């Protein structure tokens, strides 16, 4: 999903990819124990909404970056892939330069 967005690059070691656009990170894949997750930026209202509706099953506040507006999503049976795609696009829009945001389809 991340690599489908314009000018997205990937880096990282140990199986935890870091997705960035023009050098700015907008998503991080991360294994937590035996579970896969992805961390990304969200607006305060989106974060509050997702964590407020039984979010612990699907979403969590990641350590270190959570206090800076990031949210984590578990990539397992409870994942809504369409919703995750929208959230990753939101994170991309919050990070990408204006010209790339304008080129991105909704």
Mean pLDDT: 90
Q: Strand order of the main beta sheet, please?
A: 1-2-3-4-6-5
Low-confidence stretches: none
CA radius of gyration: 13 Å
Order of helices and strands: EEEEHEEHH
The CATH C-level name is: Alpha Beta
- Could you tell me the CATH topology label: Aspartate Aminotransferase, domain 1
Q: What proportion of the residues form beta strands (DSSP E)?
A: 25-35%
Shape: globular
Care to give the gist of this entry?
The protein has 106 residues and is an alpha+beta fold. It has helices spanning 44-52, 81-95, 98-103, and strands at 8-11, 18-21, 24-32, 35-41, 59-60, 70-74.
Features:
alpha+beta; 106 residues; Aspartate Aminotransferase, domain 1; single chain; 3 helices; six-stranded antiparallel sheet
Provide a descriptive summary of the structure in words.
There is one protein chain. By secondary structure, the protein is α+β, with helices and mostly antiparallel strands. It has one domain: Aspartate Aminotransferase, domain 1 (Alpha-Beta Complex). 28% of the residues lie in helices and 29% in strands. The protein has three helices and six strands. It has a six-stranded antiparallel sheet with strand order 1-2-3-4-6-5, with helices on one face. β2 (18-21) and β3 form a beta hairpin. The longest helix is centred in the last third of the chain and has 15 residues, at 81-95. The chain is globular.
